[in-house]
């Protein structure tokens, strides 16, 4: 039996006949798990109208929300600020996730030569972009909506600098590698925004960063089994994404407001929502309309043994 992530948006309020349609709400969902296909499927145990993500798995008992953590903006250097969801005092890790940051910086701030080793470094740009190069001569630029999946393996020394003027904003996630993969050769994989596979069903639009969803499959290959989705939801739409038992799951609300789970746990912008390990699903979250919002939901198999 699998678990599931369940996310939904609030339905729009009643409108007069002449009123303009309510603007869409948007939920960006980042999921880390195995490459199990995600489908929209009928499920008698699901709420009517749910888009069920799970390759045929049923969803009966959504996971409870274990905790919510507000992520304050902290300036950590000239022109650079982060909101940390994982890798802080209250949540130092969530195996296999080492850290999760929402970051922003402006020129001339950037990251000069620095090392990484033993994990996968995922960067998803929300606004702007950055240019990078490493000691082996690999270089390039990622822009708004692009993703870079770097497997540091036995070690990488690289630099990351602003790719343009103004604010550069994105999500950075570190995913631990198992002991057998700690010393693999470093590898970069990039997907431009227009190359990320996408699918849409019943008010739910999905960009598949890694893994497979609604018949769309990402070409990215991950050492730590991963399913990563960027989901846009219309008001009233709902999503359920299975999570295998024993796997970690959490979400990060970027903009707007959401509620998660049968307990309707509320989470405002810049909040990390951690789900418990019981049940066979991660609870649904609801977006408030008409505000725009984003929510990154991740699930992942533990990386042990080290």
UniProtKB/TrEMBL annotation:
InterPro entries in alphabetical order: Pirin (IPR012093), Pirin_N_dom (IPR003829), RmlC-like_jellyroll (IPR014710), RmlC_Cupin_sf (IPR011051)
CDD domains: cupin_pirin_C, cupin_pirin_N
Domain Pirin N-terminal: start-end pairs: 80-175
Family per similarity comment: Belongs to the pirin family.
Protein name: Pirin N-terminal domain-containing protein
């Amino acid at each position: 039996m699998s678990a599931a992530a369940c996310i939904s948006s609030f339905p729009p309020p009643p409108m007069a006949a002449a009123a303009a349609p309510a603007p869409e709400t948007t939920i960006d969902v980042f999921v880390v798990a195995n490459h199990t296909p995600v489908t929209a499927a009928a499920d008698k145990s699901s709420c009517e109208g749910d888009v069920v993500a799970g390759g045929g798995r049923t969803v009966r008992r959504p996971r409870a929300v274990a905790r919510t953590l507000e992520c304050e903006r902290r300036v950590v250097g000239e022109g650079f600020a982060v909101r940390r969801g994982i890798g802080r005092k209250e949540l130092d890790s969530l195996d296999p996730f080492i850290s999760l940051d929402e970051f922003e910086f402006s020129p001339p701030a950037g990251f000069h030569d620095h090392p990484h080793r033993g994990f996968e470094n995922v960067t998803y740009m929300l606004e702007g972009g950055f240019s990078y190069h490493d000691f082996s001569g690999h270089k390039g630029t990622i822009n708004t909506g692009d993703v870079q999946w770097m497997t540091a393996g036995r070690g990488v020394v690289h630099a990351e600098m602003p790719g343009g003027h103004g604010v550069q904003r994105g999500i950075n996630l570190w995913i631990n590698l198992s002991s057998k993969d700690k010393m693999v050769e470093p590898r970069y994989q990039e997907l431009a925004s227009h190359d990320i596979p996408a699918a849409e069903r019943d008010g739910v639009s999905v960009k598949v960063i890694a893994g497979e969803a609604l018949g769309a499959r990402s070409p990215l290959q991950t050492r730590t089994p991963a399913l990563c989705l960027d989901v846009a939801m219309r008001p009233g739409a709902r999503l359920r994404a299975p999570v295998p038992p024993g796997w970690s799951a959490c979400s990060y609300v970027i903009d707007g407001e959401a509620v998660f789970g049968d307990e309707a746990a509320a989470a405002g912008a810049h909040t990390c929502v951690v789900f418990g390990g019981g049940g066979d699903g991660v609870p649904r979250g609801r977006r408030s309309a008409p505000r725009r919002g984003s929510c990154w939901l991740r699930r992942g198999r533990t990386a042990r043994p080290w």
